[in-house]
Write a structure and sequence with these properties.
Layout: H1 30-57, H2 62-83, E1 115-119, E2 123-127, E3 134-139, H3 147-158, E4 162-167, H4 180-188, E5 196-199, H5 204-209, E6 224-228, E7 234-239, H6 245-256
Parallel strand pairs: 3-4, 4-5
Antiparallel strand pairs: 1-2, 1-5, 3-6, 6-7
Helix pairs in contact: 3-6
Length: about 260
């Protein structure tokens, strides 16, 4: 009870008394209880949302933006790989040289009269003499992709030529021939121009133009570049070519020949 015109009298413990009104009917508290429960539900939802978003928002809005950009880039790359155009050889209208100055398989002669597989998602049997004009890169066993591969891909692209990569299947001691998977990975390192992949199971190209494994010429293994003119004549074979102006001039001369 509050005395008239004064402060509430303290209780037995010295604390002030508080007016508490107890309704006669508990149903009068229902509205307050509903409001309390709504507020509790909102509070729990906010707490749950904060727990879910804390790892993402800990460093601000930059992380969600970066994650979204990476996801879009990955999806775009996957779609382009799956549905994008496959590299195809550029055809030539030139006829094969009727009387080359050298025998097939030698510089000045035609490529050997044999077949290889062109690997572009599916295998296509291709005569070697259809590999023109352009450069054939023969890679030795256990080849570590070099910058010259990307260089040749770019220069042949500029001059509307073809560039093929083929592995030498002959083992060199404990080193096995470069696999198709490794060839594709090496071809993928070229950002301008795409090398075409060949499979030469019998090693016809390697036997004709690349040093034999274990020979003095194979002491420092590297790419063998075979330059093929539009008429099918091999005008040059370069062992371990280096990226630079000299290689650019060789490719440009091939395209204008």
């Amino acid at each position: 009870m509050r005395p008239d015109g004064g402060d509430p009298e303290p209780d037995d413990y010295g604390l002030p008394r508080i007016d508490v009104v107890v309704p006669d009917d508990a149903r009068e508290l229902e509205r307050d209880m509903l409001a309390y429960r709504r507020e509790e539900r909102r509070r729990r939802r906010r707490a749950r949302a904060r727990r879910l978003t804390r790892p993402v928002t800990r460093f601000g809005v930059a992380i969600p933006i970066i994650a979204g950009a990476l996801l879009i880039a990955l999806l775009s790359g996957a779609l382009m790989t799956a549905f994008g155009p496959k590299p195809t050889p550029r055809p030539t209208g030139a006829q094969l040289a009727p009387r080359p100055s050298a025998s097939p398989g030698d510089v000045g002669g035609l490529l050997p009269d044999r077949d290889v597989d062109l690997v572009t998602g599916e295998r296509t049997v291709t005569p070697l003499r259809d590999l023109r004009p352009g450069v054939i890169g023969i890679v030795p066993p256990a080849y570590e992709c070099e910058r010259v591969v990307a260089e040749l891909a770019g220069r042949t692209q500029e001059n509307v030529l073809n560039f093929w990569l083929v592995a030498d299947p002959r083992p060199a001691g404990e080193k096995k021939g470069t696999s198709l998977k490794e060839l594709r990975a090496c071809a993928g390192s070229a950002h301008y121009g795409t090398p075409l992949i060949l499979e030469d199971r019998e090693g016809v190209l390697a036997k004709a133009y690349a040093p034999a494994p274990g020979s003095p010429g194979a002491a420092a293994p590297g790419l063998t570049a075979v330059f093929v003119q539009p008429d099918g004549v091999v005008n040059e074979v370069v062992q371990r070519p280096k990226a630079g102006p000299e290689l650019t001039d060789k490719v440009r001369a091939l395209g204008s020949g």
